[in-house]
Every structure is written in C-alpha cells, then in structure tokens.
C-alpha cells in the first residue's frame, strides 16, 4: 500500500523558515517525479513545486521562486520543501504527490496519482 506522509507544517512567522517532509512507503520515489501542491481555504489548488527523477529540472510557482526549494533524498525515500521567507499568502494545506503519468507538464496535477493527506502551514504577519 502506497503511503505519502507529510510532516513539518505548523505556525511560522513571515520571514522565518520551515521545512516540510514527505516520507514515502510502498513506493520508491526515485522512480517518480514528485511535487508539492497547496490549497488555501476558498482558493483553487496551486502546484507549488516539482522535481524530476534526477533533481535537475525543477518547477516552481512564480510566487515562490527564490524562496522555496524542493529536494529529494532517494536513500531516505523522502521529499522535502524548504520554505524560506514565507509570506501570509503561503498559508495553506500542503500536499506531496508522486507523478504516475506524463500526459502534460511536470506541474500538471492530473498526472499525479499518489497523494499524501496534507500538512497545514500557517504564516503569521
């Protein structure tokens, strides 16, 4: 059974830092492109960041470029999202996901078939 379990969320002040982790079981993440998606209350889901198999061709949502960094540790079967200088508008539930299809671009959420349960990130001003 595939499980993706996010952790590291919580309350952080604007300008601080936070690192989200996504531990995988039942699936070897080195075989997949991986991504982070967020959803804030009343807003549409946003694809925040994605990383390919080799970790050398990453995607970032424009609003997080230069502040967030996606990375993977295949040996630990874990995905990360380093959030530096978060802003109140980054407040959302953050989900990690594994890409199981290649119908579209790496940040097309419809290609992601395995999802975690999400972790809440709240950024205070």
Summarize the structure.
This protein has strands spanning 3-7, 10-13, 17-25, 34-39, 46-51, 59-60, 68-73, 78-84, 92-99, 112-115, 119-124. It is an all-beta fold.
Please characterize this protein's 3D structure.
This protein has 125 residues and is mainly β. Helices cover 0% and strands 50% of the residues. It is built from no helices and 11 strands. Strands 2, 4, 5, 6, 9, 10 and 11 form a 7-stranded mixed sheet that branches. A 4-stranded antiparallel sheet has the order 1-3-8-7, with no helix packed on it. The model has no long low-confidence stretch (mean pLDDT 95).
Mean pLDDT: 95
Helix-and-strand structural type: mainly beta
Number of helices: 0
- What does the overall shape look like? globular
Largest β sheet strand count, sense and barrel closure = 7 strands, mixed
Distance between the termini: 40 Å
* Cα Rg: 13 Å
Q: What is the string of SSEs from the N terminus onward? A: EEEEEEEEEEE
Which regions are unreliable across 5 or more consecutive residues at pLDDT < 50?
A: none
Strand content: over 45%
Helix content: under 10%
What's the number of extended β-strand segments? 11
Descriptive key words:
125 residues; mainly beta; 4-stranded antiparallel sheet; 50% strand
Summarize the topology.
Blueprint (H helix, E strand, L loop, with lengths): L2 E5 L2 E4 L3 E9 L8 E6 L6 E6 L7 E2 L7 E6 L4 E7 L7 E8 L12 E4 L3 E6 L1
Parallel strand pairs: 2-11
Antiparallel strand pairs: 1-3, 3-8, 4-5, 4-9, 5-6, 7-8, 9-10, 9-11
């Amino acid at each position: 059974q595939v499980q993706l379990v996010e952790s590291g969320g919580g309350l952080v002040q604007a300008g601080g830092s936070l690192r989200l982790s996504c531990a995988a079981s039942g699936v070897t993440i080195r075989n997949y492109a991986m991504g982070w998606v967020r959803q804030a209350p009343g807003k549409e889901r946003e694809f925040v960041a994605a990383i390919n198999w080799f970790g050398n061709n990453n995607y970032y949502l424009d609003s997080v470029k230069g502040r967030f960094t996606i990375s993977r540790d295949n040996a630990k079967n874990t995905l990360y999202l380093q959030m530096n200088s978060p802003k109140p508008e980054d407040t959302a539930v953050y989900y990690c996901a594994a890409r199981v299809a290649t119908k579209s671009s790496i940040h097309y959420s419809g290609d992601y078939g395995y999802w975690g349960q999400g972790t809440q990130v709240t950024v205070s001003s």
